[in-house]
Amino acid sequence: MKTRDLTDLLLLAAIWGSSFLFMRLAVPAFGPTALAFVRVAGAALVLLPILLLRGEGPVLRANWKPMIVLGLTNSALPFLLFGYALVTLPAALAAIFNAATPLFTALIAWAWLGDPLDRWRSLGLALGFAGVVGLALVKSLATGSLGSLQFDIPSALAILACLLGTLMYGHAASHAKRYLKGVPSMAMAAGTQAAAALALALPAALTWPAAMPGLRDWLCAAALAVLASALAYILYFRLISRVGPTGASSVTFLVPVFAAAWGWLFLGETVTLPMALGGGVILAGTALVLGLWPRRPAVAGA
Questions:
Q1: Could you tell me which of 273, 176, 241, 233 has the C-alpha nearest to residue 39?
Q2: Which of 8, 141, 218, 280 fits a 20 to 30 Å CA distance from 179?
Q3: Which of 79, 105, 234 is nearest to 162 (CA)?
Q4: Where exactly are the structural domains of the chain?
Q5: Is 212 exposed, middle or buried (0-12, 13-18, 19+ CB in 10 A)?
Q6: pLDDT tens-digit profile of 70-95?
Q7: C-alpha 165: how far from its chain's center?
Q8: Which of 183, 172, 186, 299 is nearest to 246 (CA)?
Q9: Strand, helix or coil at 121?
């Protein structure tokens, strides 16, 4: 991994970690489905004019089919599934399922694309996931959120929704590598967000809030659109093309670390020693997945 790729990964994790702040503030006013639509539609409105000015409009026409699939599996459907799940599940439990994304991504990339999955990368995936689980459990114990969870049919359906959403994220990364190889990251970001906006338009219209959200809520939604979707997906698709699906999806491990850091800086949330230790385990696992440590020879065909 080059320095530029590592910088992109950390910047992406910081952006997606901060998105929890904006979602926490805006989702009560919009609701999960309407907020997801505003997020992807706003990103498309930002990216499409830039794409046309860059003269990359023909790229969308040449690759519109795989971009529609990617927009559905990487944005629209997972957003709906996790939005549905969060009505029932505590955020900490949803974060654990979301952190399984690199695990699914690695298995799909190994089976479909032949990406290497050696013992160091496997250990890194296990460590990263364990670190996220530990971090989420520590936070949930501090708030008592898991204690209110009822193990019934709605909870089972919510867990199933999380697993389906995570599986779609894992498929989407390999889909982008397989069918959109060589396509500029700007074009992939613009095309997929436009496709997601079209898919979410009707569900958002049916669930649009009766009371118009306030200025603060719209500003938070704008931050989600411009930073957490438009800029973030340019970085994400660029990482997929440079370091592969598994390496790019390892950003999911780092997102809870940055979310905890932003909560500590701006919301006054407490960071305990167990949380810090969980963050350290996540960093170690991510370093193993990315091949930053220990140094090992390249695998033929990687």
A1: 233
A2: 8
A3: 79
A4: 3-290
A5: exposed
A6: 999 999 999 888 888 877 777 667 77
A7: 10
A8: 172
A9: helix
